[in-house]
Design goal:
Blueprint (H helix, E strand, L loop, with lengths): L2 H13 L2 H8 L3 H15 L4 E3 L4 E3 L1 H28 L4 E7 L1 H5 L2 H11 L3 E7 L2 H9 L5 E4 L9 E9 L1 E6 L19 E4 L6 H13 L5 E4 L4 H9 L4 E5 H4 L6 E5 L7 E8 L5 H10 L11
Parallel strand pairs: 3-4, 3-5, 8-9, 8-10
Antiparallel strand pairs: 1-2, 5-12, 6-12, 7-10, 7-11
Helix pairs in contact: 1-2, 1-3, 1-4
Pfam families: HTH_1, LysR_substrate
InterPro entries: LysR_HTH_N, LysR_subst-bd, WH-like_DNA-bd_sf, WH_DNA-bd_sf
GO molecular function: DNA binding; DNA-binding transcription factor activity
């Protein structure tokens, strides 16, 4: 029993006339009659009662009529889904992201993508850059939004997604909190909360170089905490911290964010995926994410 036979059967079951069914199917009547007889032989049951004046369905035929229509409907739906998946218009995306991207441009990019691709299911995981890169290589993520280290594994493709500037987070009760802007030299005698150098050697060294060029040598307190917990330390008066603008846009009790007069490295985010991922859905997602990306460059 194949789909062609089921279509032949349903045409006859609906018309209850072999000649009319043959016309609807654009075939001659003898092949249609042969197809029905072959189907009855394969199933071991008569599907039609035939007389010289009429054709009617048997009990087995009535049952098959309902089931055959369901089979064809399901087959059509499956074929449509597969076609849509092949075009990258359906499926599931597992996306990794670091906190600053999630707090910044990503939600708006995802909303725009979902509006155009309502049948794509998105699973979002907040992970560190290091964990995302490892998960991508293990094929546990489809794409990731990371703050890149000095180099990214050659098995991964990546492109710049967005950049933003740093602002300085300072305790609300500090005298400098009354300023509208801040120069790096003003924090020379303060404590700066900063990530450990091995976390991102290139970015760490670039920040320290900018501090030195501005004449600032603050006491450094290294913390492996994420930005939100670091903000709590700032609020408690334990030091200052550099924050991406997107995080600074979220009010936090006890913390004031000031624009920095001096130049600092731009906070750069990359979109990453595996080179051997041929998924059209991943390709379309990457293209959509880069549609409105703007690139800036600031050097010390």
């Amino acid at each position: 029993m194949d789909l062609r036979q089921l279509r032949h059967f349903l045409a006859v079951a609906k018309a209850l006339h072999f000649g009319k069914a043959a016309i609807q199917l654009h075939i001659s009547q003898p092949p249609l009659s042969q197809s029905i007889r072959k189907l009855e032989d394969e199933l071991g049951a008569r599907l039609f009662e035939r007389t010289s004046r009429s054709v009617s369905l048997t009990a087995a035929g009535k049952y098959l009529q309902e089931e055959a229509q369901a089979i064809l409907d399901r087959t059509t739906a499956v074929a449509k889904h597969v076609e849509q998946m092949g075009q990258g218009k359906e499926g599931q995306l597992t996306i990794g992201t670091i906190g600053p991207v999630l707090e910044g441009p990503l939600p708006y990019s995802l909303r725009h993508f979902k509006e155009k691709n309502p049948h794509v299911d998105i699973s979002l995981q907040q992970l560190t850059t290091r964990n995302q890169l490892q998960a991508l290589l293990r094929q546990e993520l489809d794409v990731g939004f990371v703050r890149p280290f000095n180099t990214i594994d050659s098995r991964l493709s990546h492109t710049r997604y967005a950049r933003e500037s740093y602002v300085m987070a300072i305790p609300e009760g500090h005298p400098l909190a009354k300023n509208s802007t801040l120069s790096l030299k003003e924090i020379a005698n303060e404590t700066l909360l900063i990530f450990p150098r091995p976390t991102n050697t290139g970015l760490y060294d670039a920040i320290i170089t900018c501090l030195h060029r501005a004449g600032a040598t603050p006491k450094l307190l290294h913390t492996a905490l994420l930005k939100h917990p670091t903000g709590a330390l700032v609020a408690a008066g334990l030091g200052f911290s550099l924050m991406p603008e997107s995080l600074a846009a979220i009010p936090r009790p006890g913390v004031v964010h000031l624009p920095i007069k001096d130049k600092l490295p731009i906070v750069e985010y990359h979109l990453v995926w595996t080179k051997n991922n041929s998924s059209r859905l991943v390709q379309r997602f990457v293209e959509a994410m880069l549609e409105k990306t703007t690139i800036q460059q600031v050097d010390c």
